[in-house]
Specification:
Blueprint: H1 3-16, H2 32-38, H3 43-49, H4 53-62, H5 71-76, H6 87-96, H7 104-115, H8 119-127, H9 130-137, H10 147-164, H11 173-192, H12 200-220, H13 226-233, H14 237-250, H15 275-293, H16 298-308, H17 318-325, H18 329-348, H19 354-358
Helix pairs in contact: 1-10, 7-8, 9-10, 9-11, 10-11, 11-15, 12-14, 14-15, 16-18, 17-18
Length: 359
């Protein structure tokens, strides 16, 4: 099946989920020139935009406000030159750029309506977040699936997140949806069963980590937690999860089964025998934690990074953390306790336990 045929098939799936009648036009039927003339966003500007990291960041910034009508100006101001994609993807990117981003208030109102079975509200939330899927999908290129399939899988994750979103939890929809979008994309990549070649130094570090993991599993007679693995290897939680991210990318279903780290999350561990899926779940939980950290106040984020050795920092004592932040030992302890409780509540919105990530 070629890329265009694959996109058509996925569009049928999207229609079945009732995103919008407007998405029906994406399955490349009829004259392309007429469709291009109907679009208000120029071809080159659109292609440039979706390949530009700084521009993608601006989309996320605008998703935090109601000023989404300025998106077209951002699109038209992109001037980097990139290789052109197929017409079907161009049309999709252009179409997505027309949908207005939602404010926090709108998300809450629409989220409540979705819970009451309102399909129009469901469509509004999904359409307002399609560009988020594209932003995430672009980071998974060269993993065995083409861009069209990555986007389609991500859209399924977005729809799932829309149905499960509870606005009363106080979490922004994008924070919640990222986890499910990545889950659907990465599950599709893993099901593809393709191997990705890694740099030699990464392979060596990963091989050593897997050896330690297997030995620790035998000693404990169970799967180790991330913290237990960190204590044995001397690596920080962040370093371990970074290696597991590489492991996830390079897995081949022809390889020997590898023991996984304990983790529990929604609808992802139905088959307890699948150790490879366990690896994926554990890494996604840590990715979710990292995403949540950037929702915190600067000092809240710093105290967690210092105390638990995250984002390139080494784990520090209360006293050393206090020196970094300009706080007393007791102030650090209080801030850490308060922040961990805040993180715990945010993780629970995704049915993930704080102990599963940091214990």
């Amino acid at each position: 099946m070629n890329r265009k045929q694959s996109l058509k098939l996925k569009n049928v799936q999207i229609m079945q989920y009732e995103i919008s009648e407007k998405l029906n036009t994406l399955s490349i039927k009829g004259d392309l020139t007429e469709k291009q003339q109907a679009l208000s966003i120029e071809r080159e500007a659109t292609l440039n935009f979706w390949h530009n990291e700084s521009a993608i960041s601006k989309v996320l910034e605008y998703s935090r406000s109601a000023e989404s009508n300025e998106l077209e100006d951002i699109l038209k101001n992109r001037d980097n030159k990139y290789e052109e994609y197929e017409n079907d993807l161009y049309l999709y990117f252009s179409e997505v750029g027309h949908y207005r981003l939602l404010s926090a208030t709108e998300e809450k109102l629409l989220g409540k309506a979705v819970q009451e079975g309102n399909q129009d509200a469901f469509k509004q939330i999904v359409l307002g977040n399609l560009r988020l899927v594209i932003m995430i999908a672009q980071r998974y290129e060269d993993r065995g699936l083409d861009k069209a399939d990555l986007i389609s899988e991500g859209n399924l994750g977005l729809m799932h997140a829309t149905r499960k979103f509870n606005p009363e939890k106080g979490c922004r929809f994008s924070t919640y949806a990222v986890w499910w979008i990545r889950h659907y994309i990465e599950k599709a990549i893993m099901n593809q069963g393709r191997t990705v070649r890694l740099p030699i130094h990464i392979n060596k570090a990963l091989k050593k980590l897997m050896s330690e993991l297997q030995q620790l599993s035998q000693v404990l007679q169970r799967r180790p937690t991330v913290k237990e693995l960190s204590e044995v290897t001397g690596q920080s939680l962040y370093e371990i999860m970074e290696l597991l991210a590489y492991q996830k990318a390079s897995l081949s279903f022809d390889h020997t089964e590898i023991p996984a780290i304990t983790m529990s999350s929604p609808n992802m561990l139905q088959n307890k025998q699948n150790r490879i899926v366990d690896f994926f779940v554990e890494n996604e939980a840590f990715n979710l934690l990292e995403h949540i950290l950037f929702e915190l106040e600067p000092k809240e984020r710093e105290v967690i990074e210092c105390r638990f050795g995250m984002n390139g920092r080494s784990a520090k004592t209360l006293d050393k953390t206090g020196k970094v932040l300009g706080l007393t030992r007791d102030q650090v302890r209080y801030l850490q306790t308060k922040t961990l409780e805040k993180i715990r509540l945010m993780l629970e919105e995704h049915n993930v336990s704080l102990n599963d990530v940091l214990a």
